[in-house]
Design a protein that fits this description.
about 425 residues; mainly alpha; about 0% strand; transmembrane helix; Na-dicarboxylate_symporter; transmembrane; symporter activity; Na:dicarbo_symporter_sf
């Protein structure tokens, strides 16, 4: 039985048990909540303690990998630039579209209020937004250790990126030792995360029991609302990727849609971009992408690029803010966009149950949004994860067609120059 299945069972069992206690044993509900609430809180705190060291190590090693890829050649560097632009676009789209969608179709008010009341976090507001000059200055940490201790994720992410870039400039021997150290830190923290996630069904059960006791089964409806909102944001990335393939990759719309059907069938069944790569390679060949391009770009995309990650993660954090009734100013959303686009690089190649926290934790902390609802949302992540995978594989093939068009243009320029030189002789 997979972790996601066990967590989902824990969620449903906790909600049902909590609702039963509230209905059948109301006199004992306060005592049961008093035991379950700290139990769930201990598990959540154990998960929180892994976020900062894990994200820092992932970003440093991710910068090293990206730098090595960029040094492989101009086409690789250009493709990395495209990845970066699309990741920022993904996060920015969700930062605008998710609040707009929630304004049109908000969460059920009573269920949202009950769910908010059930979380044991203080219902605080986001701190007052500083002036623009203070916001810019805050991105440069004067004391990185204090920043990490305070959980200030935005400056910590900046420091991790700059540190990783600086480390690529030192001697090869020292660079190998340094990146080897952070790679070891990453592996150790991943082991710790897996230990904490082993207990996830029990932690989610305890948190869900508290929620069920305070909200009844009304939480089920709001979780369905959440799944639809996040899935819409992720599927929007598939639509945007298709448009990019048509406009910049010069692929006819229906040809691209038909070619993607087998890829998306594999994506839905496996929920894995890596498992979908053979189908993506075959589809890219059918779309006329040269072997040298598809052989380089698709593996890079699977290894470094998840277009739906920033959009989906921003949607989750904005949804939680919506539940808590906190106001997200444009500056706070801008910070969230930058952090979401950056930490998505740290999530590639890690199981979705782990990335759910390694990516959402930093974004939530940077935007000042409570994290107590995330374990409950993890339990239903399987459904949005299907949409995430569909968007990712569509984007992977789309960027491959764009890279192929670049290659054709470069070949045409090279041919024209060769012909001009021949005529000059």
């Amino acid at each position: 039985m997979t972790l996601t299945t066990r967590v989902l069972i824990g969620l449903m069992a906790g909600l049902a048990a909590g609702a039963a206690v509230a209905s059948l044993l109301p006199a004992y509900a306060p005592q049961i909540i008093a035991v379950a609430e700290p139990a769930g809180g201990v598990w959540l705190d154990a998960l929180r303690m892994t976020i900062i060291p894990l994200v820092f190590a992932l970003l440093v090693t991710g910068v090293a990998q990206a730098a090595d890829t960029a040094r492989a050649g101009g086409d690789a560097a250009k493709t990395l630039g495209l990845f970066a632009v699309l990741l920022v676009l993904s996060a920015a789209f969700a930062a605008v579209a998710t609040p707009a969608l929630l304004a049109v179709w908000p969460a059920p008010a009573e269920a949202a209020q009950a769910l908010r009341a059930s979380a044991h976090a203080a219902q605080g507001e986001i701190p007052p937004t500083p002036a623009i000059e203070e916001m810019i200055k805050s991105f440069i940490p004067t004391n990185p250790v204090k920043v990490a201790a305070d959980g200030a994720m935005a400056p910590l992410v900046v420091f991790a990126l700059v540190f990783g870039l600086a480390a690529t400039r030192i001697s090869a021997e020292k660079r190998a030792s340094l990146f080897g150290f952070f790679d070891a830190v990453k592996d150790a923290m991943m082991t710790l995360v897996h230990w904490v996630l082993w207990a996830a069904p029990f932690g989610v059960f305890a948190l869900a029991l508290v929620t069920g006791a305070r909200t009844g089964l009304g939480a089920v409806g709001i979780l369905g609302h959440y799944v639809i909102i996040v899935s819409i944001m992720c599927l929007s990335m598939a639509v945007i990727a298709t448009i990019l393939a048509v406009v910049f990759g010069k692929v006819p719309l229906m040809a691209f849609v038909r070619a993607m059907i087998p890829v998306e069938a594999v994506a839905i069944s496996t929920q894995s971009s890596l498992a979908s790569m053979p189908a993506m390679l075959d589809t890219a060949q059918k779309l006329g992408v040269p072997e040298k391009v598809r052989g380089m770009v698709l593996p890079m995309a699977v290894a470094l690029f998840r277009m739906t990650s920033p959009a989906g993660n921003m949607a989750v954090v904005i949804y939680v803010a919506h539940i808590y009734g906190v106001h997200l100013t444009p500056l706070v959303l801008m910070v969230g966009v930058l952090v979401a686009a950056t930490v998505s690089l740290a999530a590639v190649g890690i199981a979705s149950a782990v990335t759910f926290f390694t990516t959402l934790g930093p974004i939530s902390m940077a935007m000042g949004v409570p994290m107590e609802l995330l374990p409950l949302l993890l339990a239903v992540e399987t459904l949005p994860d299907i949409s995430r995978t569909i968007g990712n594989v569509t984007a992977d093939v789309a960027v491959t067609t764009i890279a192929a068009e670049w290659s054709l243009e470069e070949d045409a320029e090279d041919l024209a120059q060769a012909q001009a030189q021949a005529q000059a002789r």
